[in-house]
Amino acid sequence: MSDTKANTKKLYIKTYGCQMNVYDSERMAESLGGSGYVEVSSPEEADMILLNTCHIREKAAEKVYSELGRYKDLKIANPDLKIGVAGCVAQAEGAEIMRRQPMVDLVVGPQSYHRLPEMEAKAGNGQTALDTDFPEEDKFEHLKARPKAKRAPAAFLTVQEGCDKFCAFCVVPYTRGAEVSRPAERVMSEARDLVERGVREITLLGQNVNAYHGAFEGGTWGLAKLIRELAKVDGLERIRFTTSHPNDMEDDLIAAHGDCEKLMPYLHLPVQSGSDKILKAMNRKHTAESYLHLIERIRAARPDIALSGDFIVGFPGETDADFEATMDLVREVNYASAYSFKYSPRPGTPAAEKGDKMVDFDVASERLQRLQELITQQQRAFQDAMIGRDVSVLFEKTGRQADQMGGKSEYLHAVHVTDPTVQIGEMRRVRIIESRTNSLSGVVLG
Ligand code: 5AD
Ligand code: SF4
């Protein structure tokens, strides 16, 4: 027996998908803290296992079922073990999850996890619990206050949820619901609280974060205003935001990239395709040219900005020429980093329901490989170009060797130094001397 208190229960959370799920997992763990749970790092020692899931592509959703399959023996060995499924698979599949995996005790969607403690209690009485509502009440207002414990230097903060864009391929408008922004003052107070607990960098999160319009004293604040107000918080050194739609990149937000020092020079701005025909079929409501023009304006405001994007290859109807247009756009933008995916038809989305002819599997695979090679080349070149440059690093963790410390540069590169004077939470200037596979190394200046 361990020496933990008799009423302490152990919670194992596994998080899939985007950063918004990472934030939600933190909040779920904190709210279950009130029911006596502490987090553990392996499912074997848990009294409750919670999978916070992603439904964006078929593979992501299927992973959940294979992971659940692995817990069968644990449940047989310990019938009191509770198993929960949260997140977007929970929202999309609801009771179907319990039909496919009867050992699941509770299913909770991303908008109703403030009800998790009650659901956990119900599941404890041998019942199952299902909640995939889009409730009227704001879950953030109903969650327990965040604990006062010291925090790691970089934190996520969800400010906006849901999406009204309805890209033809995407499940998010259905799993996360309509666009909602958290009131500005609530965001400010959560941010101040994080800073008091040691946070130096905040990444503002939203499925469509640049559409943020949080209520403030009878009016609203857009994202640029929120960033400028956050920049006034003493002790907060860095602000980032993700993820954005090109059509919501308004003038004041572009300007903030030029004049707000705490806003980091890194922008994730997905375009999905370089072909206007495909962009139209995707219901993106912008063209390749308007995207390129936007990038030009952002670069005029902040010339050293690092750009990142998302791409889908093999969308129904994509020809070789359409794909080449994507390759051309990638060459023109020159990304610091980018994610690319093979189109995955998602139930309930317009693209899947139309049942348009899928691009041949091998053709799509080859396109994906070519695109990824190009992106890797650009990523490599951007990283290698850091050699000899001085960057700011926020140190977040110790490395594998003695005195080794790791952190992130303003451009989101992982940077390592070996220096006994560096403390976690410090921001130091570092001269980059080497570019490795996935990180840079350098020496601390001064
Ligand atoms: N198939 C493949 N990729 C998708 N994405 C979203 N939906 C799909 C889908 N059905 C990608 C988009 C989006 C990122 C988060 O995931 O590129 O920007
Ligand atoms: Fe999905 Fe498009 Fe909304 Fe992004 S903007 S979450 S891709 S519907």
TrEMBL record:
Cofactor note: Binds 2 [4Fe-4S] clusters. One cluster is coordinated with 3 cysteines and an exchangeable S-adenosyl-L-methionine.
Subcellular localization(s) per the UniProt record: Cytoplasm
Coiled coil, from the record: none
Cofactor requirements of the protein: [4Fe-4S] cluster
Entry's EC annotation: 2.8.4.3
CDD domains, per the entry: Radical_SAM
Binding site for [4Fe-4S] cluster 1: C18, C54, C88
UniProt main location, coarse: cytoplasm
Domain MTTase N-terminal: 9-125
Binding site for [4Fe-4S] cluster 2: C163, C167, C170
Gene Ontology CC annotations of this record: cytosol
Residue ranges constituting the TRAM domain according to the UniProt record: 384-446
GO molecular function, one term: tRNA-2-methylthio-N(6)-dimethylallyladenosine(37) synthase activity
Entry keyword Acetylation: no
Domain Radical SAM core: residue ranges: 149-381
Keywords on record: 4Fe-4S, Cytoplasm, Iron, Iron-sulfur, Metal-binding, S-adenosyl-L-methionine, Transferase, tRNA processing
Domain of life: Bacteria
Reaction catalyzed: 2-thio-N(6)-dimethylallyladenosine(37) in tRNA + S-adenosyl-L-methionine = 2-methylsulfanyl-N(6)-dimethylallyladenosine(37) in tRNA + S-adenosyl-L-homocysteine + H(+); N(6)-dimethylallyladenosine(37) in tRNA + (sulfur carrier)-SH + AH2 + S-adenosyl-L-methionine = 2-thio-N(6)-dimethylallyladenosine(37) in tRNA + (sulfur carrier)-H + 5'-deoxyadenosine + L-methionine + A + H(+); N(6)-dimethylallyladenosine(37) in tRNA + (sulfur carrier)-SH + AH2 + 2 S-adenosyl-L-methionine = 2-methylsulfanyl-N(6)-dimethylallyladenosine(37) in tRNA + (sulfur carrier)-H + 5'-deoxyadenosine + L-methionine + A + S-adenosyl-L-homocysteine + 2 H(+)
Biological function: Catalyzes the methylthiolation of N6-(dimethylallyl)adenosine (i(6)A), leading to the formation of 2-methylthio-N6-(dimethylallyl)adenosine (ms(2)i(6)A) at position 37 in tRNAs that read codons beginning with uridine.
Record family assignment: Belongs to the methylthiotransferase family. MiaB subfamily.
Subunit structure, as described in the record: Monomer.
Protein name according to UniProt: tRNA-2-methylthio-N(6)-dimethylallyladenosine synthase
Originating species: Celeribacter baekdonensis B30
Organism taxonomic ancestry: Bacteria, Pseudomonadati, Pseudomonadota, Alphaproteobacteria, Rhodobacterales
